Amino acid sequence: MMIQYLESTKQFQLNTQNTTYALAIADDAYLLHIYWGKKLPFTDLTYLLRLKENPFTPTQNERDRACFFDTVPFEYPCGGTGDYREPAFGIEDMGGFRACNLTYLSHRIYCGKPVLQGLPHTFSEIHTPMETLEITMVDKPTGLTVLLSYTVFADSDAIIRSVKVRNDGTESCKLTRVLSCSVDIDNERLDMLTLYGSWARERQVSRVPIGHGKQRIDSLRGESSHQYSPFFALLSPQTTEQQGDAYGFTIIYSGNFFAQAELTQHGTTRAQIGINPDDFVWQLNPTEEFQAPEAVMVYSAEGLGGMSRCYHKLFHRHLIRSQWKDKNRPVLINNWEATYFDFNLEKLQHIAKEAAALGIELFVLDDGWFGHRDSDNCSLGDWKPDERKLPGGLQPLTDTVTELGMRFGLWFEPEMVSPDSDLYRAHPDWAIQIPNRPMTLCRAQYVLDMSREEVRDAIWAQMKQILDNHPISYVKWDMNRQLTELGSAVLPATRQKELWHRYVLGVYDLMERLVTEYPDLLLENCSGGGARFDPGMLYYSPQIWSSDDTDARERLRIQYGASLFMPPSAMGAHVSVCPNHATGRNTPFDTRANVAMNGTFGYELDVTKLSDEDKAAIPEQIHRYHRYSHLVRNGLQYRLGDPFGGSACAAQMHNGWDAWIYVAEDGSEALFTFVQITAEANLRSRKIALAGLQPDAQYQFEWNGQQQTMLGAVLNECGVLIPNLWGDMRSVQIYLQRVNE
Ligand code: DGJ
Questions:
Q1: Fewest CB within 10 angstroms: 242, 326, 611, 730, which?
Q2: Which residue has a Cα nearest atom 2 of ligand 1?
Q3: Can you list the pairs that 92-100 forms with residues at least 24 positions away whose Cβ atoms lie under 8 Å?
Q4: pTM score, whole prediction
Q5: What is the pLDDT of residues 109-133, one digit of tens each?
Q6: Residues 482, 278, 543, 618: is their CA dihedral positive or negative?
Q7: Does ligand 1 come within 6 angstroms of the Cβ of 480?
Q8: From the CA of 608, how far away is ligand 1's center (Å)?
């Protein structure tokens, strides 16, 4: 049993493999948070609530009710009745009044977990036991019922939370915020780690001490965004990659989000994540329900590494549905950086032929194949092949590709419409807009109102026409702008603020149609690079394009940041040409491949223009990818370096190199990669300690042309000696195998 309720103390306790999460009902009404940390036996922890120190509990001391509200660690705080910290739940009733007070009504503990209708959510594989605690809270004056769910899986340390609101009252009520989780951590000295960035510079790491007040990241762009990822971690100041307290928070959602840590007057830190309450209002009529996305909270005493590995495993096992998740993905070649919009049938066939000869398995035709799209100025919404570039449509190309023994993949941007398109000319009101207000263009395009079923149906019909009539085994789903002038032609004024969330639900609906109708399809999500690199997308696509920056050196940072909460097997990563199109930097071809192998691996270049030397390297790289990719998918990742030069892990101050290792869960094999970022003169060899190997097992590996055998403990503690390599961005990849001795 993983979840227990102790009636005598009214305490709930959730025990995972290594952690405990505890909460209790106080004063017969209020749900309070007690503890989240290392595993404890099932035991009474309610003394930690300190309710006897200051008897503010309303049943004993009604005159100080406000003191109670403003100081106790509420499990799901609401505003307007005395808790002046950030609420998790907010309402506005028919009278325009905003106060709310959720009190405990009942609970149940059951095997299984809730299915979130219309939203991506975790699920159990057949053999993984899971338990859910569902607590029912009510706001008596409005009749709102709030169901708080906590799920634990037997094979994970994650706590999955979700919130469902039902209007059991007689009047409509507006929900003004429904965060997915809130935790009052009893610790006043924590760092906040967040992932910030920009287009082509996603998921940079920021780690700062939390001071009194509120520290927040969010998105109000309609997608999770390049600028901040929907994830943060709270860390003890001493926490490193290998050890120390790490509390991770993310949500399984792809739209506007809010994530905040607030250090409060009595030294507790309130940590929250959920749909961004800014510009959010949802009208809930009697009997209607509102479901907030799932939050995934992870505590690890094994530092950032322990936290990340927990996320990787949970998402791989319990969130990614695609049948591709456990298969070697075909090595692809994408024509975007090879040709951009400047291609014709012959050029593509030429690339495909050269690629096939080198062993590349999937040819992906990116943007520019439809309408009359010679640039990004037109044709989005008109998903018909451009006969000028592709006479006879897609078929001559798909014939060539399949005859070469390759699979074929195609790019779509289903959520968008160009002003210069037949679709827009026929249905200008299908674009998101506000009447009598100029519409803001971004990349010369508008956003379709995906909240409308007829809009989704029209796009779906066009996509289906293409997918049903061609041998397409991969789709890249792109989204290249954020939302502005939020307005839907079909929503009443009272519901216009629902559009942000309705838009995301519409996108999910269309993706659900795609993966249901074409279960064999390999779907790769993308948003102008990595603006929707979030757990919500993993439910539909096992891989997501991480960034439009394919420079190997920059990718070390982007992929490090992404790996903090997302599985590396989901990171779209390609080898591209040098000088790199984003940075102008030159890096060795081999290092580009070694860095891309820390992800899904593919090529994005004109293979017909490669040097003979680079071409000759490709078959060997593909061979290595297929030999080792199971370790990237299913192994445990240990980050050994920090490409941010120590800003993520204060204890690891270096920026001259980066390294990582994937170790099979049973310890039988491992793949180690080292990248020397900058060369320095007159350096001794570097001692790089590995991690995760079985201490008492012997491992065999080839190094410097010689077979070596070393004890796991020695490799973990003392490591391997990597000589000073000649030049920047040189790399080494070593495969280690356990031997029986
Ligand atoms: C942005 C993507 O990230 C690129 O890979 C490419 O598909 C372009 N869009 C095409 O417009």
A1: 611
A2: 528
A3: 92/173, 92/174, 92/176, 92/281, 93/141, 93/142, 93/171, 93/173, 93/174, 94/171, 94/172, 94/173, 98/176, 100/139, 100/142, 100/144
A4: 0.98
A5: 999 999 999 999 999 877 899 999 9
A6: positive
A7: yes
A8: 21
